[in-house]
Amino acid sequence: MTIRHLKIFTTVADEGSMSLAAKRLHISQPSVSQAISDLEKYYGIRLFERLSQKIYLTKEGELMLSFSRHILDSFEQMEEAVNYAAEKTSLRIGCSVSVGTCLINDILDEAEQKMPDCEISVIVSNSSDIERAVLSNEIDLGLVEGIMKSKDLLIMPVCEDELVVVCGKNHELAKEKNVPLEMLKGQNYISREIGSAERNQIEKIFEDYGLQLNKTFCSTNTEAIKNAVIRGRGIAIFSKRVVERECAEGQIVILPLEGITVTRNINMVIHKNKYMSASIKMIKEILEGGAYNRQQVLKAAR
């Protein structure tokens, strides 16, 4: 069993086809079939079920795939470490919408100063998408808020963030000094997509309380939700950081919910089997030592 076997197996799993895997790897289809057969004989298991000219991973195949991805990643990281002095490094970062809006550019500014030869790429999506991308090794690390479900993640808190319920300046609740949850019943609600940490966390409180909202508007786009709130379409949930400018300008009002404060950690997450490359360690140091550090952020917020 070699790295070549694992690379072929992982490509077949990703492509869902031996012929497509052969094309992607620029080798013959019999070579792909032979590599899969070698692995199945070596471990005494079936990796794929072949049904109606399609192939599907077996449970044993799924287990092997999770290890195979990280073995291949470790191999690539080893080559990167060995050739570090001669080649540029790369780092793939995924972050939630809140982090992508408020923090990531400050982090990148510092990272680019300290790692000028590192090619950094960033994707911004909701927290559940970032979690999946870390687990499948599509990105090297994630910067997300809220609760991560997988036991295969290492989670390192960076700072705390507050969730708030907001409305437009002309909304009927905008001038209220105290807003019990009952006052929100029946309000038009502008929501984030399923998988958003904001939606999952504060909506759970609404559900536990039995609060019924009129969901009239749903979007994956933060600016679209802000604009809808400003135009009086309804209430919405945001990270407090995300609406600071609009609140300062008087366009958006944070509702003072009675007896409720919702905070969550912003975390750096990596796979538990991930090799801690020099670039990942540097991002960790930046987060621990910069203005993103939990104690400094909380102190500044006061």
What's the Cα radius of gyration?
24 Å
Tell me the CATH topology of the largest domain: D-Maltodextrin-Binding Protein, domain 2
Q: What level of helicity do the residues show?
A: 40-55%
Count of folded domains: 3
What does the overall shape look like?
Answer: elongated
Total beta strand runs: 11
CATH architecture of the largest domain: 3-Layer(aba) Sandwich
Give the averaged pLDDT, no decimals.
87
Helix vs. strand class: alpha/beta
Distance between the termini: 58 Å
User: Under the CATH scheme, which class of the largest domain?
Assistant: Alpha Beta
Helix count from the secondary structure assignment: 12
* Low-pLDDT ranges: 294-302
| Major sheet | 9 strands, mixed
Beta content: 15-25%
N to C succession of SSEs: HHHEEHEHHEHEEEHEHEHEEHH
CATH superfamily heading of the largest domain: Periplasmic binding protein-like II
How does this model look, in words?
The protein has helices at 3-15, 18-25, 29-43, 59-82, 97-102, 104-114, 127-135, 197-209, 222-230, 244-248, 278-289, 294-301; strands at residues 48-51, 54-57, 89-95, 118-124, 141-145, 153-168, 188-192, 214-219, 235-239, 252-254, 262-271. It has three domains: 3-82, Arc Repressor Mutant, subunit A, CATH 1.10.10; 89-159 and 265-301, 3-Layer(aba) Sandwich (D-Maltodextrin-Binding Protein, domain 2), CATH 3.40.190.10; 161-263, D-Maltodextrin-Binding Protein, domain 2, CATH 3.40.190. α1 packs across α3 (29-43) and α2 packs across α3 (29-43). The protein is built from twelve helices and eleven strands. The chain is α/β, with parallel strands linked by helices and 302 residues long. The chain is elongated.
